[in-house]
Each structure stands twice: as structure tokens, then as C-alpha cells.
Amino acid sequence: MENKVIQERLADLRTRMKEEGIDYYMIPTADFHSSEYVNDYFKVREYFCNFSGSNGTLVVWQEGAGLWTDGRYFIQAQKELEGTTVTLFRMQDEGVPTITEFLQKNMEQGQTLGFDGRVIPAGEGKGFEKKLAEKEIRFAYLKDLSAEIWTDRPAFPAGAVKVLDEEIAGKSFEEKRSQVMEKVEKEGADRFLLTKLDDLMWLFNLRGCDVECNPVAMSYGYFTKEESVLFIQKKVLDDTVTAYLERKGIRVEEYDRIMDFLGKLPGEGKILVDDRYCSYCLYKILGEKQTLVEKKSPTELLKAIKNPVELANMEKLYLQDSVALTRFIYWLKTNIGKMEITEITAADRLEQFRREIPECIGLSFPTIGGYKANAAMMHYEATPENHAVLEPEGLFLVDSGGQYMGATTDVTRTIVLGPISDEVKMHYTAVAAGMLQMTNARWLYGCTGRNLDILARQPVWNMGLDYKCGTGHGVGYILNVHEGPQNLSWRYIDGRQEVVIEAGMDITNEPGIYIEGSHGIRIENVMVAENDVKNEYGQFMHFKTLTWVPIDMEAIDENYLTETQKMFLYGYQREVYEKVSPFLNEEEREWLRRETGADSTIVLKNGRA
User: Fold this and answer.
1) What is the pTM (predicted TM-score) of this model?
2) If you average pLDDT over every residue of the chain, what do you get?
3) Where in the numbering of this chain does the Peptidase M24 domain appear (predicted)?
4) E strand or H helix at 521
């Protein structure tokens, strides 16, 4: 079925390209800060191709268009691109070119590549310059061609900003600034431009609401030894925030003055910029007069290692969040088949359980609630026009999280609603085994996530299956649900960032199996890395679990578990009962006792579970 609306928009875009002398036009999923999730104002790529996932780049030329996205979104993209005339390029699949490779092959000598330089990171823009230099490709990066086509575009985000109390932040702005500037100086710079939104919120101890579920405000930061400048829309600041900024000696400039400000900076000194998040536009302005120190922003690693106050709040609120999800699972299993429950009403009910927690301030991302085949789409989101009714059979995957005044949570459970096949049980058991193996990891300090990923993936690989995403990512603190630089991922990619897992880093643990047209399984906990014993071999480390939600034993086939994996499973289940049961009513508590096997005594070959 043709999508005439998208086809007409692409036709209008091609007309504008001709008028501007642009042969290929690139539209990423990004705002002016290279954010993963963006405000509706910045969803230009979705406007022109209908694909709504959080990662993807659209390239348009006169004869066609292509969308590049990763394995999390292949099934979703295939559906959403239907009838648009846009071709899906499945990133990292064998034989699929990267965008750069595609442009190298298809662009002719001296042609022009266009993009809005405010939404392309400098590092990516420099990469295009280098790889396309041989063909003498010109770059037109100062125009947003959508401006005259998207006439009903949403307003630019300008939500309220709040100060995060130091009692919850754990460190003052002055302490954080001192740490940051010390690292800036070690890198040989005396000035620092910070453009990443969640890093800015962390450093200034502010929180906003300019991106759905991400408590960030559109802003930039500029720092010298003597001065701190915050570029933000002054209209979003109330008296309390203004007084806080004055008290901290932070100079406030209007958000849209950043280009003019950077263009007028004196040429002496050296300024640190992170080309992963600094836009190509700002980078070009700086490069005209400034000496650039192109390094990773020191805020990223400092933010990733949670301080003792943050960790204490997280432990408390992750337990409360686990209680909410456990109560939801009990409610769902008790009511399935007795009343109509849809993917949407189930997600709403789970949100209600979270809202009962006094510290809850919202969701950390829109709930992914997929029934049966819908769960095979990793980032599926039900809509009023397209959703399933849950029945007392099959699996329901729910990936969800909350924003709390003291934590950002992320947890997935796949719930048995009724009869399931032996194959589904085999898949579920493998996913649970992988998650539990990662939970119980022990390693020597110096490992990165690439060293550890195999622990979660091995049971899935043993069946000749895989999941087309990483196993884990960092999680923010009252910030973005996806946070770096830490991650768990097996694949070596030239240039991909790898960091050592440090004590205090939190990370998700979420292996899965996704069978298109049939089912999807994911089990996800959040953990924190901690130091273990230290001896003549070095510093050993382990993970401390924050998430305490039962694994669904109805989907476990112990024939596929080793004795050690059984010990991990029953050990986790019993700890779930011990931690969560005090917060439940009598009926819920009795169900959890049965669900976790808390009454049973299971002796294993390798010890006692």
C-alpha cells in the first residue's frame, strides 16, 4: 500500500534540493547536541520517511532514498517504510554498505552533499570530508531544507528547569567543576566547550524537560579557569533557578547566542571539544580561529561513576521500582482472561504502580509492551491505532522504567500468560541463563564490556542464535536511560569506544532472543560494578544487583540449565523473595513465594541453591 503523504514530502524535498544545488541530502536522528532521543521539533527524519525509531539516518537523492538503522529496528523499520519508496539498509548485515561507502560509490565527482550542520556531530562530518575528498565532494551544511516544507512543525522545546538539591546530587557544582577543569588542564587545554545535554545537567546540577522522559534542558556550557557560562533560554528560568545560578557564579547567556559567542572568542589558548557531540557547525566556527584539543569530554566518565549518595538512593529506589513491577506481574497473571487487557492498558497499569512511589516523577522511556510477535521488535511501542489484546496464552514482554528523585530505572521481564511451546521455553531458559551468568561475573580490573559480553550471549550462541544489539548500557542518575561510556557488547568495530569497567558504574544486563513473526524474549536487570578481593593477581571485581523482580519459572525448562546455572537461578529467586515480600500484601506475598520457590530446598551437585 502506497504512503502518498511520505512520497509527496520526499518530492517536495527533492525540489528544494534542486533549487539549492544539492545532489544528496542526509537527515539523521539528532538534535543540536547529538542526543539519542529528541524532542518532537527535531523529528525531521521521521517526518520524511515515517520511521519512528530512535536511531536511523535518511539519505535522499533524486532517484531514490535509503534509511540506515541498526538491528533493534529492522522489523519495525520494514513495517513503517512500507509504501514510502524508501529502501531499508540493515546496518552491519553482511553486504550492506555503510552510508559513507554508499556515498563513495554513488556520488559523482564534484557533487554536493547537503545536511543541517547543527544536527551532524563534528566527528561524523570530518569523516565524510576525509572519505569523500577523492571525489571532491562539496558540503552544504548551513541549511535545514525541511524548514519550508514542514509548515506545522512543533514548537522549539522550552520546558521548565529545576535545581537538583546537593543532598540528592551528592556533589556540588563547584566540586564537579573543579574535577572537570582539572582533567581539561591535563589534556593540555585551558577552556572547555560542553554540548552534551545530560552532561550539562549533571555538571550544573539542573534538570529540565525538553525531551520526553529525559530530564534535560536545551543548553551549552563554556568554561575557563575563571568563568562558567551557561547558554540556555532565559525564559525557562524562574527566580529560584536564577538565584541559584547567581549564587554559584554562573553567567547566563541566551541559548541561541552560542554561535555568535564562539565566533568572537579570542584566538589565544586551547579549547577542549568532544567531536562526538559538538555539532559540525560549531566545530567549523571554532576551527576558524581556535586551537582545538579534540578529546572525550571528561564529564562523561565522571558522571558514569556514581558517587556514594547516588548509589545509596539508587539501591533504595530500584528496590521500590522492583516492587512495583512485581505487583504488576501478579496483577497481570491474576486478571488475564478475566477482563480485557491490551498492550496499552497493561502499560498504563504498570505506570500506576510506579506512580504510587512518592519519589516517582515520570517514566524513563515510553513503555515497550509487546505481546507475542510484537515482542520480536526490540523497541516496539503500541499505539491506539495499532496494538494487541492480551490473551491467556503466549508471552508478554514489558521493558519499562521510571524517573525518580534519586534514580533512573530500566528493567525488562517477559511474562507467561498461558500455554507456550517447548521451543519458547528453550529460548527463555537460555536468555535467563545468560542474564544470570553475567550477574555472577567475576573479573580482574581492566576488563571492558567486550571481555564480559560472552557470559550473557553464550547460551544463546550455543543454539546458533543471536540478538542484534549489545547486552548492556549505562543508566543515568535522574537523567537519560541510556548513558555511556560503559557498555556490554561483543563486536569489535574499528573506532568504537571501549572503556574499562570501573567501580561505581551501573550497567544493564539484558540478553534476548527475537524470532520475527513469533515471539520476543528479554530479561533485564541493572547492576553496579564493585571492587572485590585484591591480591597478588590484582583487583578482582563483581557486580551488585539493583533489580529484584522474579524470573518467570513457568517458562524455565531446567533440562537446558547446568547445575551452576540452576544455583544462580534459585539463588536470585530467593533473594527476590527476601527483598520484595515485605512490601507486598498477603495474596501477593503468597504468590511470590510460589513463583520464586522460596519454600523449596534444592540441593545441587555444585552446592546448595
Assistant:
1) 0.93
2) 95
3) 314-528
4) strand 519-522
